[in-house]
Amino acid sequence: MKPDIVLLERMMPPIEKALDAAYTVHYLPDMPSLEAIAPRVRAVVTGGGTGVPPDVMAALPELGLIAINGIGTDAVDLQAARRRNIHVTTTPGVLTDDVADMAIALLLAASRGIVRADRYVREGEWPKGAPIALGHRVSGRRMGIVGLGHVGRAIAHRAQAFGMQVAYNDVREIPDAGLAFHASLTDLARCSDILVVAAAGGAGSRGIVNEGVLDALGSAGLLINVARGSVVDESALVAALRDGRLGGAGLDVFAHEPDVPAALLAMDNVVLQPHRASATVETRQAMGEMVLGNLAAFHAGRPLLSAVV
Ligand code: 8YV
Q1: Using one digit for the tens of pLDDT, what is the confidence trace for 100-121?
Q2: Which ligand 1 atom sits closest to the C-alpha of 95?
């Protein structure tokens, strides 16, 4: 008999096909209750942003594995997992480049007005000779990176190739980083034209990009977020953009996904993405294979491929 697993977030079709071949998959949003299957479920699969709601974790007494299709663990109660001897796995390494690419895509799109200009062409404004605002140069500008993990470093590498000056803030200085370190996030923002959020979500980073940081970035500054909406005080961000205290933003993540503040939808100095930084065929395939590998190892009693708990 195939083991039962609970799926909390859809995956790409070939991965779901492989899941279906090996497991009886219960897609949580389609289920009225977990009660009937709960005693048989030893593993759940979820996304980094979705995580596992506490009531779902509590409803599965035999749970032994939470396989995250992503690197963020902030939406899973890791302490509860440790207490209950539940393993938690992620998909490290394979999505770093795509997330860094998304940061650069948002940076270019917001700086050069790519989305606005696309609309200008589609809406027939070009032949009319309607005025369109100039963009801003990216090369030579100063980028501040919030969180210099794997993704932060990959963003730094790309920004340097664009001739940007890169500095960073993290909980502590990273000796071999080769980049200017600012112990204060406000100082980093003051010394940056563009602030890129690449820090892990969770209690330690909640709201660290606050009103003071946004004001330090200033009215010509640009905020890019490819990490977690929770790292930025979203109300302060909306207010700063509305009041012209911040120049623009490129956002892939939000505080209450999939809800995006209505005020942002009306701003054309803001570029919005629906949490898609790792959403390429190649990366989602590689992530899905890691999830499949972790599930198979767990059910066979072999060592897990990429356990964080
Ligand atoms: C994914 C993410 O979009 O890695 C993460 O933590 O949030 C993203 O890469 C997500 O995990 C898939 O839902």
Answers
A1: 999 999 999 999 999 999 999 9
A2: 9
